[in-house]
What does this fold into?
Amino acid sequence: MDSTQLSVTCIAPVNIAVIKYWGKRNESLILPINDSLSVTLSTADLCSKTKIIADAKFTDNVMILNGKEENFENERIQRCVKEIKARAAELGSCPKELLEWKIHIESENNFPTAAGLASSASGYACLVYSLAQLYDLKKQEISDIARMGSGSACRSIYGGFVQWQKGIQLDGKDSIAFQVAPASHWPDLHVLILVVNDSKKKIGSTSGMARSVVTSELIKYRVEKCVPQRIHSMTQAIKDRDFSKFAEVTMKDSNQFHAICLDTFPPCVYMNDVSHEIVNYIHEFNRTEGETKVAYTFDAGPNACLYLLEKNVKRVLSFVNHIFPNDNQKSAEYVRGIPVEYE
Ligand code: 2P0
It folds into this structure.
């Protein structure tokens, strides 16, 4: 190679699941017990940005996350870097000496951690995508490598509507994400995130789901009897742009996920009183409007993600502002997003 330095910069967006991933069958490879399905949001709204510099003169590998140095030996980072390099070496996709050079990684999110939104999905998707650019693995399947960083990250590798199939192989090679439909298929679908203030420290997703797998009875029922049908109904709802069906399945799956969290022992309590009020208000709103105009879904925290059609955004926003005026007592701010398509 002529040059002694190479650099790439990439961005990757957040995704919000409508059929939740909860539970692993293999902790170190991050293999899930059920399929999941999500919508990837626009990078203009919520995303991670990662710059990687490889330099023949660097003496150490360095990882800086949101301005703070991280331990490069972190198991998840190591798994991603090693796997990408192994594939590049096997395929001979880049010069051999490039694989020897140390790398400096700098990553940041364009949304505040205080917003309470999970950044591991966009963060690891961005890290793995950037590494794939650096080592010229552009046309290769990389969602299984992003998965080794954080399960939900594999879904952020693709835009639009994305399914993560759990796979059946022990090595996880078939536990990958794929696009169900591009964002352009349903451009008027919007997302509104209500950031619910909450000071309580929640149990992290990784340990919460591990506890659910061991202690919850309901999780077995969900995996066997509910998720396969839901994936089927959700895929059909997306294909038909059937908002009412999409909303019903989204809300039922969120509720069942949180029921499993409560069936976990000791329980994982992620939703708070404001979250439950939002649920009640939305059902009441849909009932009085005479049709389902909004769907809620909650991840491992109290924030509500609302799915709705563009024509109803104004009406729903005025409803949200009416029930949660910004009085600092019981406030819900919002972030708006749309599904995104990207290369
Ligand atoms: C999801 N969540 O499908 C579900 C819904 C949270 C609730 O994916 O251990 O941070 O890194 O694989 O990916 C959060 O799980 O967990 C998650 P690890 P991750 O979006």
The longest helix spans residues 218-240. Residues 17, 20-22, 30, 36, 118, 120, 150-152, 205-206, 299-300 surround 2P0 (CB under 6 Å). The chain has nine helices and 15 strands.
